[in-house]
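Sat 14:20. Reprocessing the chain from the morning session after the first attempt stalled halfway. Input below, unchanged.
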Amino acid sequence: MTEHMSDPTAPRAPDGDAGLLYGGPADPGEETRTLGLLYPPAGRHQDYTSMQLAFVGGVAEAATAHGYDLLLSPARSGTDPSFRRMMTGLRRVDGVVVMEIRREDDRVDHLARTGFPYIAIGRNRTADEAGWVDLDFAGLAGSCVQHLADLGHRRIAFVNRSEELFDSGYGFARLGQEGYTQAMADLGLVPHAYLCGDDLASGEAALERILNEEPATTSLVTMNEAALEGVYRGLNRHGRSVPRDFSVVGVAASPWAEQVTPQLTAAEIPAKEMARIAVDLMMKRLTSPGSPPRHILLKPLITLRASTGQCRPVPGSEPEPEFPEFPGLDVDF
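Finished this time. Tokens:
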């Protein structure tokens, strides 16, 4: 039975969800044949990035294949009016796919407490109670570091996402930096991580900071594909040729990796595959609500392109070789 806010006998939401009501799983005859997608825009101007639009398209395509429509909400929190409209009063969706998961995310907390069917693309502790699909961002960042180290690089920087996203606890930004830092520590190298806005100018500014602070840097790992072209511009302005003088590797979808010159060596972000998996998990959740949640962690291989090469140390950055001394040995020629 669907509950209306005007019904005085309708059950209230759990404490902490004042004003939010949930009608419980719909009866078969009450299905909306619509899925919700909770996906706040991450662009600099509060718009959807190209990568985000790829996920929206992927979820919509997968939902259509199962005979479902898609309702998109830009809600960032459980108090967002868009979230409240989707979750209150007359039921508008049968289940929700949640994206841009933060480590502390009240949207996920509310869905878990009320038992509303949801699947996450991304993860946190609460999302473990439901199904999710995610990339192993920590493992991918570590693999990127190892790839550069195998090429002889020892001064490796990390270009992350924006300060706003990082501080808000977005999982991929935090996990990527943790993976980079751990990989550098395992190799006995000093990490240098930089937060960077999602645009060309920010990428150029980040590269400027890197070379000002560590002029001997010969490579970087990036998880900020929107800033990639700016990074390349900054390198060119400093006379650093890629990959002859500087190597770049990252986690990026192939359209971004292939549109720069030289093309980026990168681990793929398989947006369409992740969207399909999420919708498949949702269908399982709706048809078999008592089944245990599935957690799918993807770790794509790094595709070698043209942006990485053997390390060529910056002139003057390497210490002069030391020759051993032999005390008491007097040799005349």
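Confidence is low (pLDDT under 50) at residues 1-29.
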